[in-house]
TrEMBL record:
Name listed for the protein in its UniProt record: E3 ubiquitin-protein ligase TRIM37
The keyword Protease belongs to this UniProt entry's keyword annotation: no
Domain B box-type: 89-131
Organism (species): Culex pipiens
One example GO MF annotation: ubiquitin protein ligase binding
PROSITE patterns linked: ZF_BBOX, ZF_RING_2
Amino acid sequence: MFHSSSSTMESTTELTRLLECRICLEGLQNCHICFYCSQPFCRACIDNWFKKDRKCPGCRTLLASQNCLVKVGTFDQIQEQLSRMLSDETRNRCSQHPKDRLSLFCEPCEECICASCLLSEQHRDHKDLAVLLEDIYDQYEEKLQFVLGRIETRKIIIKGSLNDVEDNLKSLTKQLEDETKILDANMSSIEKVRNQAEALLKAKKDATTLKAIMKILQSAESTLSEEAQTSAEINERLLKFFLINPATLEFQLDRADDDVDLVSELLTVDGFRWAVKLSSENALYLSLHEGIPGFHHPVRTYCRRGRCCH
């Protein structure tokens, strides 16, 4: 196997050399050959050569004109095919053992390896846990398909959220405009009371002024109380725009014995599987049992104490 791979690489290398420009020694671009010796050149390279020398770089024959050069489109096609061959030849080679292809999969290390890697210090203890690459490939492809499904689900959810945000933004803008008008009116009211109060503080201290002060105190108390209540109501209304709708788990628990803990069936939400447990002491537990395949999720329990309603 190693000899075959080596021979293939050598043949490919020789073919690559034959498809090199004789001037720049790189892959041919817009290949033209000499009419006399058939040596290939890039058109740009031979044009630059003719600016200083009219002789062919290969056979040194004097070329009367550029008509002595023949375009060969086949070279470009061969060059393209060769590039693909080289890419395929080196694509799945082991970086540690370049002659070997990556044909095995070490499950403990979760790594693609070659036959030589299996004998290395890193993987020698995993010989019995190494499988053929094609045998494990479908499992990872299935995991990837599952992740793609989750991505599509999340895209739908995000799109819905964006629509909700846009709708809420329009509603919030209208709400803010209305609330701004109310707050502006409140500001005008308390400014009016403030101006009256400041004027009375500068007024002559007599019975008339005292009556006015008593009247403004009563008015100010009412105005400030109403303003405080209105502001609180506005804050409460605006707060609703920032509340996030919770995820919902629907389940049913039928209790036959008060001394027995109840556990619901596993509930799936966005790729995660949960179970709800109600203890005999009316403590409610939420346990995460499964997440994204291929990722380790230890079972975690979340407790929410509350009252059980019958």
